Amino acid sequence: MTQWEYARLEYRSAGTLGADRFMDWDAVFHDDDGPERWGTDERFDDLRHLNRAGQAGWQAYDRGAVFLHTEPYRLFAVTYSLRRPVE
């Protein structure tokens, strides 16, 4: 039976909600050691952070998105649930 350790990667909008097309996005990795800031992107580009987690052996198994209830809907945050086998 495989035992897993779990983590999450939060990708959250840090910019304003005005007409700024390229809001800043903060990536924060959470595991048993606590939160670790992985940087800020000037555009929504979570692939770099997902690749970094993958290189450390993490597998994404779920993705949740949070939208602001405005018109038009704006993406506010994306959270990836991650796991990797315990050796």
How would you sum up this structure in a few lines?
The protein is mainly β and 87 residues long.
Write structural notes for this entry.
The radius of gyration is 14 Å and the shape is elongated. It has a 5-stranded antiparallel beta sheet, with helices on one face. The chain has 87 residues and is mainly β. The longest helix is centred in the middle third of the chain and has 9 residues, at 47-55. The protein contains 1 helix and 5 strands, in the order βββαββ. The mean pLDDT is 86.
Report helical residue fraction.
Answer: 10-25%
Radius of gyration: 14 Å
- Reading the helices and strands in chain order gives EEEHEE
| Shape, per Cα inertia axes | elongated
Q: What are the low-pLDDT stretches, counting only 5+ consecutive residues below 50?
A: none
Main structural class: mainly beta
Numbering strands along the chain, what is their spatial order in the largest sheet?
3-2-1-5-4
Oligomer state of the chains in this structure: single chain
User: Biggest sheet, open or closed, and with what strands and sense?
Assistant: 5 strands, antiparallel
Average pLDDT:
86
Q: How many distinct beta strands?
A: 5
End-to-end distance, in Å? 12 Å
> Count of DSSP helices?
1
> Percent of residues in beta strands?
over 45%
